[in-house]
Amino acid sequence: MIANKNIFTKGAILMAGFLIVLFMMFMPVFNGHHAINMMDNLYNSISKGSAYYIDGLIKDAEKYKDTEIKVDFKLKSTEMAAEAMQILTASGAKVVQDGEKLAVEGNLGTILQNALADSDMMFANDGKKLKEKYTYDESYDEKKVLYNWWNALKGTSKSMTKQEKFPEAKFINNVMTRAVECSYNYYKVQSENIKDKAGVVIFSLVFYVIYTIWFGFAIMYLFEGWGMQLSH
């Protein structure tokens, strides 16, 4: 039983309009993308512009240019160990593989500089250059290079922690999270300056607030029209 038809009708109209707009937001009208996907891509592009830390990490890695390390760690598979061995060897390290285990001796600064150089290429969306560096063919997924770096650095960090070389382990973790992971996640995302997209950003934020309030009023009027009220 509808208690107040006028209020209920108002709520129904608001809800109908809300659903029509919602339907339109999921239509591929923005260069083949729907509005949610378009805005997600936009904010990813904007955030990429403020997530570049590699230059600073390259400078910080200089302090380890005279640091020699000797570590061993185990990876999840023999194949993973072989691929980690390849990038570590390319960094000048001596690596011995025993199945899933790697024994590594090398210069920490050189290893980290190579990891950062590879991350920099990926951050710049230059995966082709990275594949050429390691002579991979076109079928190879270039993102896997950074995945291999992440596993190699993770194993190195754990081994350094066991040796109680905590500053080195902490810096390796910084390289993993702020360079390797960041470049992996932002690969093929085009960086945008928020100043260049200020109008779209402001519109999206204002629209989000208005659209949320719109839904709230639609629900409120529908329930009030049914005769349901909140009371203390």
Major pleated sheet:
3 strands, antiparallel
In angstroms, what is the radius of gyration?
26 Å
Strand line-up across the major sheet: 1-3-2
Based on Cα principal axes, name the global outline.
Answer: elongated
Describe the structure.
By secondary structure, the protein is mostly helical. It has 2 domains: 5-32 and 193-226, no CATH class; 53-186, no CATH class. Helices cover 64% and strands 8% of the residues. It has 9 helices and 3 strands. A 3-stranded antiparallel sheet has the order 1-3-2. Helix 3 packs antiparallel against helix 5 and helix 5 runs parallel beside helix 8. The model has no long low-confidence stretch (mean pLDDT 89).
Summarize the structure.
With 232 residues, the chain is mainly α. It has helices at 5-25, 35-49, 54-61, 78-89, 108-123, 127-133, 143-162, 166-186, 198-226; strands at residues 68-74, 94-98, 101-107. The longest helix has 29 residues, at 198-226.
Write the layout of secondary structure elements.
Layout: H1 5-25, H2 35-49, H3 54-61, E1 68-74, H4 78-89, E2 94-98, E3 101-107, H5 108-123, H6 127-133, H7 143-162, H8 166-186, H9 198-226
Antiparallel strand pairs: 1-3, 2-3
Helix pairs in contact: 1-9, 3-5, 4-7, 5-7, 5-8, 7-8
List the main descriptive attributes of the protein structure presented here:
mainly alpha, 8% strand, elongated, 2 domains
